[in-house]
Amino acid sequence: MDHGLPPRALIIGGSLSGLFAAASLRAIGWEVEVFERSASELSGRGGGLVLQPAVLAAIAFAGLDAGRVVGVPSGERIFLNRAGQVVQRSHAPQTQTSWNLLYGILRRGLPAGVVHANQQLLRFEQHAGGVTAYFAGGRQASGDLLIGADGAGSAVWAQLLPGLAPRAPGPTSRRRRCKKPRRRWMGPASACGNGICGPTGAASMRAAPRCWATAATTRRR
């Protein structure tokens, strides 16, 4: 590549990891292009998250405008017995947020034309000048760096580690949200605590009296 120009990164995958990589590289002077295989917008696809300090640090590093609300606080976890009596309270101060809210912050922070939808990576080639990516439909893109952030079924992984496909463990838990506490006992892993209830988009995020969740295997309904 011409090193008289800013370095360029090709990021395969336009979900949170790909967008965080793009925003962070732009903050240090890189040009970036993000290639997402899905044809439609990814917003609304994720669930609730506990906001970690590293996420806030990454948002600040990238110079992104997180807006006034990045989550809602939760103070404790409450464990009940079969009779619905409180048997344990755990002090667990956390900030609850949503995948969709973080995705919106990242997408708004990138200029138009940086994220390309409906771009399925076929292969990439490394060469003396950098790397070139080839996509279904005939598109090509070249850069100094290629980042694989394309998740499960990663095309980047498949080329780098052929024959070593990641194995999905399957669902290991179920998460439920409700406006009112349930009276029916849901098992020893049940818990409730202050947090998010209802839709968790940026406009509807709010504190709620209780959130309930129960661990379950795929056979348990």
Automatic annotation (TrEMBL):
InterPro entries referenced in this protein's UniProt entry, alphabetically: DHP_3-monooxygenase, FAD-bd, FAD/NAD-bd_sf
SUPFAM superfamilies: FAD/NAD(P)-binding domain (SSF51905)
FAD-binding domain residues: 9-159
PANTHER family cross-referenced by the UniProt entry: MONOOXYGENASE-LIKE, OS06G0597600 PROTEIN
Organism of derivation: Duganella margarita
Protein name from the UniProt record: FAD-binding domain-containing protein
Gene3D superfamilies, alphabetized: FAD/NAD(P)-binding domain
GO molecular function: FAD binding
